[in-house]
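Box 3.1 — From sequence to structure: 3-methyl-2-oxobutanoate hydroxymethyltransferase
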Amino acid sequence: PVRALTPAAVMARKGDTPLVCLTAYTTPVAKLVDPECDIVLVGDSVGMVLHGLPSTLGVTLEMMIMHGKAVMRGLGRALCVVDMPFGSYEESPAQAFRHAARLLAETGAAAVKLEGGLHMKETISFLVARGIPVMGHVGLTPQSVNTLGGYKVQGRDADAGRVLADAHAVADAGAFAVVLEKLPSALAATITNEVPVPTIGIGAGPACDGQILVVDDMLGLFADFRPKFVKRFATLAEDAGAAIHAYAEEVRTGRFPAQEHSFGAAS
Ligand code: KIV
Ligand code: NA
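Predicted structure (token representation):
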């Protein structure tokens, strides 16, 4: 059987060839991305991307467990990381451990990701000391949209020191990698040079040790969400729209189903 990449193996890739990462929420998409990816993230972005929620705040542990199980059924090689949802870890290290343990035990994934820097240091080291590999996430942390006042670029000008300190705190606490979201490229480069664990960028420029995108975004599965940091490698929403139109036309005009899609009396 294929051996999945371990968090330790990911950590050892610091400064090596770029780590390729994408999100997945379902078994078929996990099967598609697995051969090309080092890390597959079951992101809490699932709430917005698949469930139509207005932010990630409404995502539950049960949703993350369900999607984590689905993704694990489709993976062979990539390391699976599952996001801890809002409200499942911020209260205390003990609360975080209880919920992270459920995520790993019930999905079979090998690691969790949680948002926050300095104020999550104690929690990250608590989890790592008890057998739970943690990926950090600093810069724009979407679960804090209400205190950040929107999905703005973080770490500009006087704010750079805060984000740098957050990245250091996460690495010092024992995280095996850290996501840098929506930062000026120069700051992400500084962080990447200074912290000893791989940085995985999203909207953080080319200097990071790896890159991640939401798979539905890079496949162009939406017509209505196009942030600057997303490159569309396909336009599947347009292809799907055309296919659905063609189906509707053929049903209305009686051209589908044809003989070849229909059954005769004899088997
Ligand atoms: O939820 C998510 O998809 C993420 C990535 C964008 C890093 O956290
Ligand atoms: Na997330």
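Summary of the box: Residues 23, 41, 43-45, 83, 179, 202, 212, 214 surround 3-methyl-2-oxobutanoic acid (ligand 1) (CB under 6 Å).
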